[in-house]
Design a protein that fits this description.
Number of helices: 14
Number of strands: 11
Structural class: alpha/beta
Distance between the termini: 97 Å
Number of domains: 2
Helix content: 40-55%
Largest sheet: 11 strands, mixed
Strand content: 15-25%
């Protein structure tokens, strides 16, 4: 009997030890946090690794096309979400995301230091992370060599001396093209179609997407394109310097920064409804607003951080250009009219 008691006690001890070891193993197992993002999302490996190490987590990025495609996918799968968070919905699609009710509210403490101009969702379902300006970029050498004045406003683009010199993206197929269309609507209001009709008569060139416009049509990047003006970004001049094959003393391109000539895009992150990682998702939003992540944003995605304490890289300070009066439209107005505006634009410009 005594033997049985000893054996039983030994068994209990071993079982308890194994259970403790198993529990310890389970408790140290990293939690997987999944973000669905657009294809342009980028972050330094060491920055993400710091979050993973601090939170015993593994972050997985599910890139799913452009911002519109990402949102569509999230809406279609909202009853069985593919991720814990969605990053990349911007102010042109924000109202659609909120109406679809795909996000859970979360007010990060870090929002206290963020400018109210970026906080477009009073319910805190969508948290601002970065912003950038869609502007017309121009080839500085072309204008200098042809002794041609650079346009200073949207109205200038319809002048005969600029005939055939501008390439834009189709707003039905390009978020960049849509942003520029919105800039013209913000500036011209109900007469925006008159402006586009004048651009059409001035031989504006339309292509499907930004890559074709910038790398095929634009003369300022490849040096071979026929158009010295392209709808791109206020940060594109900085990118030209950073990615130049041979070092440059100055940017070969610049941006037209007249009133409403640039449209300000703001990108947001939100916690998807149904997440099983709510606490970790909140921590990641806080992380995206802290200085370390925000300082990484400019050279990874060529946009500006919303955190004012995040220092900009020297290349941004020297070469990136920001308008003093960017065009903006309320997300609700965009949501209510986006499809109609695109169809009206198509009827005038492409028919």
């Amino acid at each position: 009997m005594k033997k049985l008691t000893v054996l039983f006690s030994t068994f209990l001890f071993l079982f308890s030890a194994c259970s403790s070891q198993s529990t310890a193993t389970q408790s140290t197992e990293p939690q997987t946090l999944t973000l669905i993002t657009h294809d342009s999302f980028a972050v330094s490996e060491e920055v993400i690794k710091s979050f993973e190490e601090e939170n015993n987590a593994k972050v997985v990025f599910l890139q799913s096309g452009d911002a519109g495609a990402v949102l569509n996918r999230a809406i279609l799968t909202k009853d069985a979400p593919l991720a814990d968070l969605l990053f990349g919905v911007d102010n042109t699609f924000l109202s659609r995301a909120l109406e679809a009710d795909i996000f859970e509210p979360y007010e990060s403490p870090a929002l206290a230091g963020i400018d109210d101009a970026f906080k477009l969702d009073s319910t805190h379902r969508a948290t601002p992370v970065d912003y950038g300006d869609v502007c017309i970029n121009y080839d500085r050498a072309y204008f200098a060599e042809n002794n041609l004045a650079v346009p200073q406003s949207l109205e200038d683009l319809t002048k005969p001396e600029y005939a055939g010199l501008l390439v834009v993206e189709n707003p039905a197929t390009s978020s960049t093209g849509l942003a520029f269309l919105l800039a013209t609507i913000a500036h011209f209001d109900d007469s925006y179609l008159d402006f586009w009709n004048a651009l059409k008569e001035n031989d504006v060139v339309v292509v499907d997407g930004w890559e074709t416009a910038y790398y095929t049509n634009f003369s300022g990047s490849s040096g071979r394109g026929p158009q010295p003006m392209v709808v791109s970004y206020g940060t594109s001049p900085a990118a030209e310097v950073i990615f130049a094959e041979t070092p440059l003393d100055d940017a070969p391109t610049a941006s037209i920064l007249g009133p409403d000539a640039c449209f300000r895009q703001i990108e947001f992150i939100g916690i998807l409804k149904g997440t099983q990682r709510r606490h970790l998702a909140e921590k990641f939003i806080d992380f995206m607003l802290n200085e370390r992540f925000q300082k990484d944003v400019p050279l990874q995605m060529f946009v500006y951080p919303v955190n004012p304490d995040a220092d900009l890289p020297d290349e941004f300070k020297k070469y990136a250009q920001a308008p003093s009066r960017p065009a903006t439209l309320a997300p609700e107005e965009i949501a209510a009219n986006r499809d109609r505006w695109i169809q009206e634009w198509t009827d005038v410009v492409l028919e």
